[in-house]
TrEMBL record:
Fe cation binds at residue 268. The keyword S-adenosyl-L-methionine does not apply. The keyword Metal-binding applies. This is 2-aminoethylphosphonate ABC transporter substrate-binding protein. One of its GO terms (molecular function) is thiamine binding. It comes from Diplocloster agilis. Keywords: Iron, Metal-binding, Signal. GO terms for biological process: thiamine transport. Residues 47-60 have a biased composition (Polar residues).
Length: 385
């Protein structure tokens, strides 16, 4: 694993370019680590994957230090890979994973507010965690090593309610064979390019009410263009969109498989899906105007009976080894930019991000934004499974 080095220069760049913040991933998972109950494939398709405790254990689960309930929006294969070390360190702990898209996990947490099931949240968007904070659902906790987390990647309180791990951003995957079959020999490199009438019916995009990737893309466009022009752009884009999916990964996967010509998704998924089918077929594109983005972050859920194992997990989730694992998938992690940028990303990944993104304000306006988007475009949303 690569060594993360944050130089003074790079730290300054990240700090300055991320000003304004307050503060996800391949669906062919390997076998879960021993003792782990892993979310299944349906989770990535818009249906929550939740393991159920045996009936004789449900009453004691809330205070059982040998069981840990984790809600996450990380990709299935990332969850399996990342958890290996934690399970090795805590072999007697059984982990129950509930994994789904960001919007679905957020809605589930809000619905369970008065009777929370999750012990911790791992790798959910900062925007969503700020919504939970506004609903008084988070318990402040300063995990071991939090002092080295950049200010823009954690809650501003002395004892933070949430702590970030990495940033993820808008990208799209272009299936050049599909476009060629339609007589198109160009690859759209910008938001403006996506409006060309020749792409009508060829674009898949995530529904922001279900997908954090969809929401960060919409928020990025509104931030980049302003509210009025941003909604005008989304109106025009809608004419070319065939479907709005309930997973941020799905558009890239479906474009890679040839179902659509263009799949708006996020960097990690586009790069990996393009790699799976080969550069002669598919290409990952980061929009020339800049990418909308968010921070994947962790938090302790407020409950009557807190578990020490929850805090142990949150300590581990920002430790040096796991930070190195995050950096294998994302070029920007919560302690800065690593010494080696993963293949497929720009060598100056911070420059790709639309700045600033005011996550506090975006969280406050989340419902307003989603209501407006739903009113305008939800007719093209895929049926929920």
């Amino acid at each position: 694993m690569k060594k993360l080095i944050v130089t003074a220069c790079m730290l300054a760049m990240v700090m300055s370019t991320l000003t304004g913040c307050v503060k996800k991933t391949q669906e062919s998972p390997s076998e879960p680590a021993a003792g782990t109950v892993q979310g299944d494939e349906s989770a990535a398709q818009g249906e929550a994957s939740t393991t159920q405790l045996p009936a004789n254990e449900t009453q004691s689960a809330a205070v059982n230090e040998k069981e840990l309930n984790i809600y996450t929006a990380l990709e299935d294969e990332q969850v399996t890979d990342y958890l290996t070390e934690f399970k090795e360190q805590n072999p007697d702990v059984t982990i129950h994973i509930t994994r789904d898209s960001t919007g679905i996990i957020t809605s589930k947490l809000l619905a369970e507010k008065d009777n929370p099931i999750a012990d911790v949240v791992w790798g959910l968007s900062a925007t969503s965690l700020l919504v939970l904070k506004q609903n008084d659902m988070l318990e402040g906790y300063a995990p071991e090593g939090v002092d080295r987390i950049l200010p823009e990647f954690k809650d501003a309180a002395e004892v933070p309610d949430w702590v970030g791990i990495d940033a993820w951003e808008t990208a799209w995957l272009v299936n050049k064979e599909v476009l060629k079959s339609k007589g198109i020999d160009t690859v759209p490199a910008s938001y403006e390019d996506l409006l060309d009438p020749k792409y009508e019916g060829l674009i898949a995009m995530p529904n922001p009410a279900s997908s954090g990737t969809g929401l960060l893309t919409v928020n990025g466009i509104l931030q980049l263009m302003g509210e009025e022009k941003g909604w005008e752009y989304l109106d025009a884009l809608d004419k070319n969109v065939a479907v709005y999916t309930h997973s941020g990964s799905q558009p890239a996967k479906e474009a890679a498989s040839g179902e659509y010509g263009i799949g708006i998704s996020f960097g990690y998924r586009c790069i990996n899906s393009a790699s799976e089918v080969g550069p002669e077929i598919a290409e990952a594109v980061f929009p020339s105007e800049g990418s909308g983005w968010d921070v994947e972050a962790n938090a302790l859920i407020k409950k009557a009976d807190q578990k020490e194992i929850s805090k142990t997990f949150l300590d581990w989730a920002i430790s040096d080894n796991i930070m190195q694992k995050y950096a294998e998938n994302y070029p920007i992690v919560a302690i800065g930019v690593g010494s080696g940028v993963p293949e497929g990303y720009a060598q100056n990944p911070v420059d790709q991000l639309i700045k600033p993104m005011d996550f506090e304000n975006l969280a406050k306006n989340r419902e307003t934004t989603l209501d407006e988007w739903t009113l305008r475009y939800d007719a093209k949303s895929a049926q929920k499974e």
